[in-house]
Amino acid sequence: MTDSLHRSYPVVDRSYVSIIKRDVRALAKEMDFPLNKISELDIIIAELSSNLVKYAQAGELLIRALPDAGSPGIEIISADSGPGMIDTNRMMMDGVSTGGSLGQGLGAIGRLADFFQLYSLPGRLTIGLIRVFRKMPVPTPITPLAGVQALLVSKVDQTPCGDGFYCKLTSTALRMFLGDGLGHGPAAHQAVEQATRTMARQNENSPAGWLTAIHRAAIGTRGLVGTAAVFDFGSRKWTVCGVGNIRTQLYGQGYTKSYAAQNGILGYNMPRTLQEQELPYEPGQCLAMASDGIQSRWNPARYPNAIRFDPMVLAAAIYKEYGRQNDDMSVAIARIY
Q: Using only C-alpha atoms, what is the Rg of the chain?
C-alpha cells in the first residue's frame, strides 16, 4: 500500500471549526458515507475542536481518507502540546471534566467512533486517534503479523507532498520504504511517486536491490533520499538499507538502536556498494523512520507505553513534538506482533 496524505488543520479558535466540518463533510460525501455517519463526524469534529480550544496548547487536527476497498474510512488525529492528562481512561468517562463542562465530550467521541485511542503525557502532549468507517469492517479471527502506519504532512500551504511511503505485508515478509524528494512541491512529489511505483514492482526481499531499482527509475527527476527495510518472518530479522538523510531507529524494551544511512541521492549519485545491515528481532520491538522534515532529536523511547497503542499514535507524537513545519514531514512506524 501507499499511504495517503494527512491534511493539517490548526485549531486556534472556534472560527476554524466550520472550515474543518465543511472539508470533512465533502470528503465523507465523496467516499459515499451515509448521512447519519456524516452527522456523527460533525459531532466528533466539534467535540475535538472544543477540547483543543478550551484546554490545549498548539492544537491541531490531522485528517486523511482511508480508501480501503472493503471498508473505506476517515481518520482524525487530535494532537496538542499539553497540558496532558494523568488518567485518560477516567477522562473518557461521562461526567468527568477539568473545565467545568458536562464532561461528555470524550465519552461521546468514544461512542460515535469505530476506533478511538487516547494517549497523553502530562506536561507534554495528548494524541487522540479516531477512525470512522462507512461500514464497520468485519472483524477477522486472524491476528495480524504486523502493524504499520505512516503519517505524511505537506509543508504548510504546499501540495502535493514530497515525502512518500510504501509497504507490503505478506505471510513471509514485511517490506517498507520511506522516501523524501529533494525540496518540496510537485517536482519532489514526482520523484518520490516514481520511487513508490518502482517499489510495487519489486519481487525480491532485497533493500539494496530496491534502492538500486529506485535510483535507475529516478534518473531525470529531481532525485530523492530513501530507506528501505524488510522483516523476514522466517528468520525473524530486519534488513535495512538507506541512502540519504532518512533517520531510522529500532526501539524495544529498554534499548534503542540507530541505523546510519549512506551518503548519496537516489537518481543522481549512489554509493558504489550499498551496505545492508541486519538487525535482530526482540519481542515488543518497533521500527521507526522519519524524513528530515522531523527534527533529528526524536527518540521512540521518550513515549512510555506508546508501543502498546496503534502505531499511528507514536507517529503522531513524534510529528507533534519534532515536526519542522517548513518542509514536508513524514514518520513511519512498524511493529511486529
A: 20
